C-alpha cells in the first residue's frame, strides 16, 4: 500500500495452497521465487501453507533448504492460519514468524483494493453488474448452507 500505483501480484507470484496442492506445484513456485533471474524485486506469497499435506510440506522444506543457498535476496511471505500454527510449514519456518496486525485502517485498505480491482467504465466486462464496477467481491454468511 506504500506504492498505490504498483500492480498487485500476478498469478505466478501467489500460490493458494489447499490439501490437494501437489509437490510439483509448490516446487515450481519455490523455483520461481528462489532461482535468481532478471525479474527481481517480486514478492512471492504462499497463502494457507498450513493446509499442505505432510508429504508435500516435507518436500517443500527440502527444496527450500536446497535452493535458498543460491539466492540470499529472495522475497517470500508465507501466510498461515494462526489456529494451525503447529502444522508442518509454520513449525519449520517458526523462527521467521511475524504476527501481523493491520497497520492501516479498514477504510484505507478498502480504497486501495477498490483502486486495483475496479474495471474501467467504458470496457465491456461482467464487472459492470457489480457494485462500482468491481471485478472481485466476497460473499459471506454467518449461517451455513444458505446457498452462497
Automatic annotation (TrEMBL):
Gene Ontology CC entries for this record: cytosol; membrane; nucleolus
Keyword Transcription attributed: no
Disulfide bond among keywords: no
InterPro entries assigned to the protein according to its UniProt record, in alphabetical order: RNF213 (IPR031248)
Molecular function GO terms recorded: ATP hydrolysis activity; ligase activity; ubiquitin-protein transferase activity
Keywords attached to this entry: Ligase
Biological processes annotated in GO: negative regulation of non-canonical Wnt signaling pathway; sprouting angiogenesis; ubiquitin-dependent protein catabolic process
Protein's name according to its UniProt entry: RN213 ligase
Provenance organism: Columbina picui
